[in-house]
Amino acid sequence: MVEKIKLNFLGTGSSIPTERRNHPAVLMRYKDEVILMDCGEGTQRQFRKAKLNPCRITKILITHWHGDHVLGLAGLLQTLNLNGYNGELVIYGPKGSKNEFKNMVSPYLGFYWNVSKKSGNKFDIVVKEVEEGVFLDKEDFFIEAIKVEHGCPDLAYSIVFKEKKRLDKEKLEKLKIPNSPLIGELVKGKTVEIDGKKIDGKKLSYIEPIRKITFLMDTRYIESLAKFAKDSDLLISEATHSAEEQELATEHGHLTSEDAANIAKKAKVKKLILMHLSQRYDAIPKVILGEAKESLKGTKIEVSVAEDFDELEL
Ligand SMILES: [Zn+2]
Ligand SMILES: [Zn+2]
Questions:
Q1: Measured between alpha carbons, how far is 305 from 186 in angstroms, rounded to an integer?
Q2: Which of 10, 100, 166, 288 minimizes the number of CB atoms within 10 Å of its CB?
Q3: Alpha-carbon distance 10 to 216, whole Å?
Q4: Are 70 and 42 within 8 A, CB to CB?
Q5: pLDDT value of position 109
């Protein structure tokens, strides 16, 4: 049993929300880790509708500080405080994030509560400005960033789940193996004796393969994106414009359906999910999807357009 990575598309629209699509926000869950990627206005309500608990969030990744990607932060943080969120919440973002956060959220923080436990708040909020490369390396996964081009400091993120040798929990339970240091020996594939029975670790362990998810929001097409997204199991990409609007897309620092498909193709990703559609394509996502499919003809890459509240497991 591979440990599941769960994704919830909480908002799939762009700068103006529609009845169908809220501003961008995608939630990634893996074991105890709950990472929110961007937080458009109304994201906390999307949590409620999806029957997800925002108090479980452990980290927030912000791509850039345009309103459609961050205006949900203040409200969400206020709710976390009211709901007794405890611990430390780390918000990662591009250069300038500390100031942006302070300017946008602080009036509310100051009014309702303070930004750190030291000053009496229930939980700590830490804003970290991220450079390119790996900025967080945990036992199970690491997160890396690359600068993209959108007319303001802006990052794309990849979360890479490391290859791991794991023990099959169900088999462990069936064999009634107690939690002891012997478990560590079993993980190494060694044979151990428990209650007079010889147990072969190799038969209980399996390899959890590398899995990579890339989150690519507002940017114009640049060559470095394909290298960054290389071999992703899932590329979540903006596709604000139709292929016919290439000039407009480049001018405004956005991708077309075709751009996103080309990045997916060059990066040899397994699956491409498009979001951040302009409201003009809200009711006709088929246009965006059709163009992307056309560009991906002859490849095995799966492509779809995300709808709000879509769920996915990897
Ligand atoms: Zn946007
Ligand atoms: Zn933007």
A1: 43
A2: 166
A3: 16
A4: no
A5: 65
Cβ proximity of 274 and 11 under 8 Å: no
DSSP for 122-137, please give it. Answer: SSEEEEEE--SEEEEE
Alpha-carbon span 193 to 82, nearest angstrom: 51
Return d(Cα 186, Cα 169) in angstroms, integer.
12
Backbone angles phi, psi at 119, to 5 degrees: -95, 20
Quickly list DSSP for 35-57: EEE---TTHHHHHHHTT--GGG-
What is the three-class DSSP state of 234? strand
Give 10-residue mean pLDDT values along the chain (314 residues). 92 95 98 97 98 96 98 92 86 96 78 51 84 96 98 98 86 80 82 85 86 98 98 98 95 97 98 95 90 97 97 96
Q: Say whether 124 is catalytic.
A: no
What pLDDT is recorded for position 261? 98
Ligand 1 centroid from CA 150, angstroms: 10
CA of 156 to the centre of ligand 2 (A): 12
CA of 69 to the centre of ligand 1 (A): 6
Can you tell me the distance from the alpha carbon of 306 to that of 276, in angstroms, rounded to the nearest whole number? 9
CB 105 within 8 A of CB 73: yes
- Decide: residue 84, CB within 10 A, 0-12 exposed, 13-18 middle, 19+ buried: exposed
The C-alpha torsion from 30 through 237 and 63 to 228, rounded to 10°, is: 80
Taking the CA of 279 as reference, the closest ligand is: 1
Burial class from Cβ neighbours inside 10 Å (0-12, 13-18, 19+) for residue 58 reads middle
Query: Which among 230, 203, 200, 205 has a CA at the least distance from the CA of 216?
Result: 230
CA-based nearest residue to 273, from 249, 304, 296, 300: 304
Active-site position among 68, 154, 218, 259: 68
